[in-house]
Amino acid sequence: MELTRREAIITLIVGATVAALVDADPAAEGGTTTMANATTLPPAYRGNHEPKPLPFDPAKLRGLSEKLLRSHHENNYTGAVKRLNLIQQQLGQLPKDAAPYQVGSLKREELIATNSMALHELYFGNLGGDGKASGTITDLVKAQYGSMETWEQEFRQTGLSLAGGPGWVILAFDPHVQGVHTYWSWDHTHSVASGTPLLIMDMYEHSYAMDYGANAKGYIDAFFQNVQWDEVNRRAERVRQ
Amino acid sequence: MELTRREAIITLIVGATVAALVDADPAAEGGTTTMANATTLPPAYRGNHEPKPLPFDPAKLRGLSEKLLRSHHENNYTGAVKRLNLIQQQLGQLPKDAAPYQVGSLKREELIATNSMALHELYFGNLGGDGKASGTITDLVKAQYGSMETWEQEFRQTGLSLAGGPGWVILAFDPHVQGVHTYWSWDHTHSVASGTPLLIMDMYEHSYAMDYGANAKGYIDAFFQNVQWDEVNRRAERVRQ
Amino acid sequence: MELTRREAIITLIVGATVAALVDADPAAEGGTTTMANATTLPPAYRGNHEPKPLPFDPAKLRGLSEKLLRSHHENNYTGAVKRLNLIQQQLGQLPKDAAPYQVGSLKREELIATNSMALHELYFGNLGGDGKASGTITDLVKAQYGSMETWEQEFRQTGLSLAGGPGWVILAFDPHVQGVHTYWSWDHTHSVASGTPLLIMDMYEHSYAMDYGANAKGYIDAFFQNVQWDEVNRRAERVRQ
Amino acid sequence: MELTRREAIITLIVGATVAALVDADPAAEGGTTTMANATTLPPAYRGNHEPKPLPFDPAKLRGLSEKLLRSHHENNYTGAVKRLNLIQQQLGQLPKDAAPYQVGSLKREELIATNSMALHELYFGNLGGDGKASGTITDLVKAQYGSMETWEQEFRQTGLSLAGGPGWVILAFDPHVQGVHTYWSWDHTHSVASGTPLLIMDMYEHSYAMDYGANAKGYIDAFFQNVQWDEVNRRAERVRQ
What we know:
The structure is a homotetramer. By secondary structure, chain A is mostly helical. Helix content of chain A is 50%, strand content 9%.
């Protein structure tokens, strides 16, 4: 039996859809969801991102409970990685003449899941420390904001402006000014287009509601007590090379 | 006469507002709008970004008129830079106890203007070439997408999905896969959080409506004929070091 | 041959996808795109919205060219109606165990296309008049804003804040205050949740760039010269009954 | 002493800002924040919205704790009403020549706070019942979706697609089809432009995280057990008159 090109494409889509029906379980823990045909796709569509473990002992943070941190890591972060894999595989199996809105809506989902993955990794990566800033990052902050206090004041206020909604506060190295700058970011779609993230604070309610309810200020206090500034310094030094 | 700290803050705000009333002219061409007190603020709030000139002769692009390119550069890009300056100065003069929504709404405007500035500079920077891809970038694209055709197909479809609305298509170097990936981006707020932009296509209607009306496909064809791939290669090589 | 329930679902999806491959032509003019199986679906998924013709002679508006108005109607409005039909049919054929992001991304596309359809119909519906406000609407505006001038000033400024981006300005009847209020709306996803739109101004660049380039102010002047206030009054009177 | 018009405007702004400095306390409970000069403004800028009490006994809902419901009402809903008042007063005191971005960013905050107020009132208004649908609404749902099950399946999936992020699911009466339709809504900015909301489900994490952590499905089950369908029927009958 010979397949026309169009039939071959349809077969691919069906394969992808069947695989999605069979394997897609966004609530399942562990492992990485994959579609049957994904391994024959180019790397961009293979969807083989692996969740990273928490880089600290979640029982040992000040003011952030193990239950909250594990739920955040397992449900929100790991869920995003798995979803990203599925989305990329679905993208790789779209027909060449898919309607633009079909491509666009999946590419939007891909951006959301990609940023959720990246920002969560950066966020967990800059937690687990003693909260005492020193070194390169304090020099960088003072050069732009005059003092750590001025900077922290705006960083905290930006966080509070996201209380009860979703978003991130991002201290990034901005190549335009060759220095650091704080950015407000509404949800996983938002980010600064040209810059390298150094310190990330998650303001999605799943970052704090279990422990703090609507008290975003209490969460921000706890966040600052646990910042791993050594990692922030490593990121800053990498970008300044 | 002595001022209390609170009166001093109020005076600052009034100064800023008066300056804004006097100088803010978002339609004016040339120069950079500044507020009276801005020079005494830390650099983060000084708002002294300068618009860059077009890096090519706008009379010489294929399929994109000089009128369109000049309007795009003077109104949309330069307007964003001036607005960014005003916003940062306003941020620098907010009182310490400003309501979070006041900080948040200005930080959002700052993100929009910052990304508009950065993405426009990258966009104009990757125009003015002969549209013939070669070198590092083709290796990077093939490594992830299998072929330039597969990549270009998705890049174009992502662009078409933004036709009639606003947004950007961004080919970025993604540190997660140590390779390139194309991202859909809705408006100036959207971007990929962790990655370095290499090739940028503006899909805001002001990029093409004057020349192409609603024919976004015609614009995308013209865009590809003018890509400055040498610049894309320079960006790619910088990030791979 | 007997089909299991799962196979039956898959067959439906394949049917839908094949139909989409065959019929989806977002650029085609006239007619309404339909999928093969759509007629057997419940009305919510049948996707049988029909574009309405322009309610005025596009050759006769002041300061808005026939070419612009026809392109706006045929490409942006009619395109949205056709896209909505396709999206609703696709939604109706999703398997019961589709991943939530698949449902969510299509529901988002449905919201965008629905609002684009509705707002464009309201916008074209309130054009074609002589621009002279009188009657019910002026009473309603004065009751809330003190004077037509105060209201028009804010309505115009809200429009200018959307220049170079996309969005709508919406004068709505708000049941909370039993009166009218002007709302800023960023793109087709945004709207006021509880209220009835009375006067709509489209600020997407496709509403003006062909005639006015980046001169949004010139477009707003033209808009006000062509408002069909009789229709605005009809809408206002319907909601006040 | 005579004031020029410009000085008078500046005085107004300063007044507003000082009042904002003094009175703005987004965390305070009870009462309504007001600015000194607000009473002399037209109603649109007076900002005198009053929070409504919960229309049910929060100790008596099934699967939603009193603590969660009170926090939701006092922090998220009441906070939005107070913020709306402040924003409208600030809008009313902007100078006539404010930069468009200043108007636009406040109008955006106004839309967010307005929709948050309206949707929360509708949400609390359709809770407190026995969860048993009957009457007008079931006829309307069946007419569009074929069965309550088909409709509920999509409504729930749409909710799940918002898990871990913010948003609303809205069953609205849509004048285009003279029937009901379910809409996905991302955050407080999103809504259906032309339609009347009948049944609202809040998917912001503050609606459930205190009781359910990341288990959005558990929350959706609880939501359906508490729907006040009589109120939904009242809304439906009002719109069908």
